[in-house]
Amino acid sequence: MRPNNKVLLENVNDYLQHVAVLPKQIDKVQHSLKKDMKKSDEKDIDYAEYRHKTHAEILQIVERNLVIVNYNPIIFYTLNFLLMAYLFDKKIIPFNAVTGLYIFYCSIILSISLVIYLIIKKHSYLYPNQKLMMTNILLFSIGVILCVLKIFNVTFGLYVIPLVVFQTIFAIGILLVVLSLFLKKPEVAAMGLAVIQKTIASVTINETVITVITFSSWLIILVIILYFVMIYSTRKYV
Description:
By secondary structure, this protein is mostly helical.
């Protein structure tokens, strides 16, 4: 490794320790840096020269991205959890129908927010993500507008779709819950449970089963929300 690159790694490590970043986050940043430094090594130049940045500028980007990367999943899951829970009207599932608002949410907001979430996650800590995060905030604002429209009973119409679509969505909810157990991601479980309790009526007409599943799902979701509130309120960087 080039001497200046070693100095940069040491500077990043010392600075992040100084601002009380968790060790596991420092390891992730160091891993990302070492991986990205291979690009400059191939050109036989220092990493700072390759990036056209000073060490201080790279440190500043890393610090900003620590906040963005850490809060990226919070914004993504909060946005989609709230919109899915509020805009999806399970009362009309027996009629195989959804509102235009929900179709707009799924086709526009959900798809764009998912792409942004994955891009920020891929870009990690080394490249600016501010524009993507601002787009996320814009999507959040649009989501709030959709909720206000529903309050005033503006739904953009009802659209009939095959029952199998709802059943497929229900299966996706179960898949998310199972996947969360392997990934150890409670937020993924919360999304899956929200999907399950919204679409349970597509696989059974038993009111007792529907009530139990709905109540249990919301109870677990509440526990997950409280868990994250405690975690994020006691740490500077998660």
